[in-house]
Every structure is written in C-alpha cells, then in structure tokens.
Amino acid sequence: MNEERDEASSLEFETETSTGEAAYTFDELELIDDTEVPNLSTGSEITETPPFPCCPFCTTVNDPLALQCSGCHAVLTVSELDMLLNRASCESQSIRDAVVKMEAEWNLREFDEIEMTTLALGHFNLQDSDEGLKYLREASRLNPNNVMLASQANAIAIRLEETRRQNHVPSSAPTGKSILVVDDSSTVRKLIAGKLEKSGHTVICAVDGVEALELINHGLPDLVLLDISMPRMDGYEVCRQIRSDPAAANLPVIMIAGRDGFFDEVRGRIAGTTAYITKPFGPETLMKALDAYLIPDSEV
C-alpha cells in the first residue's frame, strides 16, 4: 500500500504549498484557475474602473454600484472577468451603435483612460475580446499609475490565452488510439488511464510485463506506456520481447523511469525503447510524449 501511495504521488505536479498541502492530481489540476486578478492593496494611484450611474451604451440610469446595466444588460466593469468574457445575452444593437460612435469620436480626438476603458467594455460586451483587450491595454498605457487596470488587462489576456489553448485541437493531433499502460500500481494506472480517456483514447491496462505480453499477443496497441520497475519482469525485458515480434518492430514503446530518474540508456537502446519519461510528470508531459510518437489518422 505504501508503495502505491509513493507511485501515485510521483504522478502529481510538484505544487506543494508552504503550508504543507498536498500536490494536485491530474483531475484536480483541471479545476485550478490561476488567472484571478491579484488582490492589490488600495492607494491613491490604484483605482477601479469608475461606476456608470448612466449606462454609456444605452443611457439607462442604474444603481451607482451596478455591475450590469438593467436596460441593455451590458457589463459595466472590467473587474468581473466571468461576466465580461462569458456574455450570455445583451442588447447588442444599442451597444454596437454606441461603440461605432465612440470609435468615430476617437478618430477625431484623444481619449482619456476612462473613455478608452469604456470603449474596451463595449467590445467585450459584443464578444469581440481581442479588440476589447487592445483598447484596455491602451487605457492602461494612458495611466501607467493605475496598477489595478494593468492587472485586470493582464488577467484578461491570460484568461483568453487559456481559453484558446483549451479550444485549440490541432488537426494533426492523434485521437482514438489504443494505448497499453503497463504498471504494477493500480493508482498510477488509474491516473494515466483517466487522462488518456479524456483525450479520446482507448486504454488497456496490464498489472505487469507478463500480462502486457499476453495482451499484445491478442492484438497490437498503437502505443505502449511501460513502467521499468515491476515484479516478475522489468520494463527492459518486456520491451525486448515486444521487439522480438516482427509485427511490433515499429510499435512506439515509451518507458516510465522512477522518481530517482534512473534510466539505463544502453539497456533501453538495446531493448528497443522509443523514448522515456521520468516521474514525477504531469498531463502536459504525458500528452506531448504521446503526440510525438502516435501516428495521426491522416498518415495511417
């Protein structure tokens, strides 16, 4: 049981806090949002976007502390990231008309920080986040002493980049592949299998090298993730026996080295390993390794 606990912790990101809290697992990492606006102390030069008692887009009179217009439903502050970047519904025509007028005015004269921030808000409410961020950065440039505005612009930029990264699936990225995970720790197998299945792959698990060879004899997977230190048969011997089958000559075999990072490159090369990764590793390292050696469907 202790060995399984050690193995499981080796697959966790090294994010232990100063208070001794446990590191995050694959699933827990997906829940972390590190783009929150920092909690800055207030000062004479650190100001929040001023409230709009009268909506700058539809002229509806709102409560001075309102975050959203009761008329056109526009978000009135850049500090509410979730509201601003996940616009469900708003009266877009009045906002669009106001933005067009503001941009025409901007072409005739210089805007101040508040006017530029308002223009940015208009674009965010129209779900044109790139333009909104451009104008918000310009507003921050107009008043370099407004640390809060700069931090809000930075937080929005990080959130937008994270959203792009999550939504971007390269056309060449392999999906739907069968991957054999060989490890004597049930916890390690569960962590790896969970991540791979969420990425659209089919996962087959083996508790040791002997079972892995039996599974391979019934059908080749598209890739093998193979732990080195296992009972009955270590990873080097498993890899050597895989390579003894001519049908598996080009089967990608990625070995998983222990926490101490030990990997005998000579033995690995002789056994025929394709590559290796070292514990502890996180989801990004795992997926990069797979993407590097799995053959995309377009090339099959």
Determine the N-to-C terminus distance.
42 Å
Largest sheet: 5 strands, parallel
- In spatial order, strands of the major sheet run 2-1-3-4-5
Rg measurement, Å: 27 Å
Name of the top-level CATH class of the largest domain: Mainly Alpha
Would you write up a description of this structure?
By secondary structure, the protein is of the alpha/beta class. It has 2 domains: 37-168, Serine Threonine Protein Phosphatase 5, Tetratricopeptide repeat (Alpha Horseshoe); 178-299, 3-Layer(aba) Sandwich (Rossmann fold), CATH 3.40.50. The chain has 12 helices and 5 strands. The longest helix has 21 residues, at 147-167. Mean pLDDT is 79; it is low at 12-49.
Describe this structure in a few short sentences.
By secondary structure, the protein is of the alpha/beta class. It contains 12 helices and 5 strands. It has helices at about 1-10, 25-30, 80-85, 90-105, 115-125, 130-140, 145-165, 185-200, 210-215, 235-245, 265-270, 285-295; strands at about 180, 200-205, 225, 255, 275-280.
Furnish the topology, listing elements before pairings.
Layout: H1 2-10, H2 26-29, H3 81-85, H4 92-106, H5 113-125, H6 129-142, H7 147-167, E1 178-182, H8 186-198, E2 202-206, H9 209-217, E3 223-227, H10 235-243, E4 253-257, H11 265-271, E5 275-278, H12 283-293
Parallel strand pairs: 1-2, 1-3, 3-4, 4-5
Helix pairs in contact: 1-8, 4-5, 5-6, 6-7, 9-10, 10-11
